[in-house]
Design a protein that fits this description.
This protein is α+β, with helices and mostly antiparallel strands and 86 residues long. It has one domain. The protein is built from 2 helices and 6 strands, in the order βββββαβα. The chain has a 4-stranded antiparallel beta sheet. The longest helix has 13 residues. It is globular and about 35 Å long. The two termini are 22 Å apart.
Length: 86
């Protein structure tokens, strides 16, 4: 799979089963050494379950990504390791 470079973000792909809304998506920000995920917002029940392990700061959020995106996530992780970002 080829990756597309957009500014500091390197795109590793969208959900192969996206319904046309271009979501979820996985990127690697090499400059800031961060993985970037676009996903579905967590519903109230999932959010409450996540809060059982600790608070979620106002500057953060919980998103959901399907397991079928493991390939794109793995490719982003491999690229980060090759670039010695980890």
């Amino acid at each position: 799979m080829t990756t597309e470079v957009i500014m500091a973000l390197r795109s590793f792909g969208k959900d192969p089963n996206t319904n046309g809304d271009n979501c979820p998506t996985v990127w690697l920000d090499e400059e800031n050494r961060e993985f970037v995920f676009q996903g579905w917002r967590a519903g109230a029940d999932l959010q409450a379950e996540c809060l059982q392990t600790g608070p979620i700061p106002d500057t953060e959020g919980v998103v959901r990504l399907p397991v079928r995106m493991a390939q794109q996530i793995r490719e982003a992780i491999d690229a980060a390791e090759r670039a010695a970002l980890c």
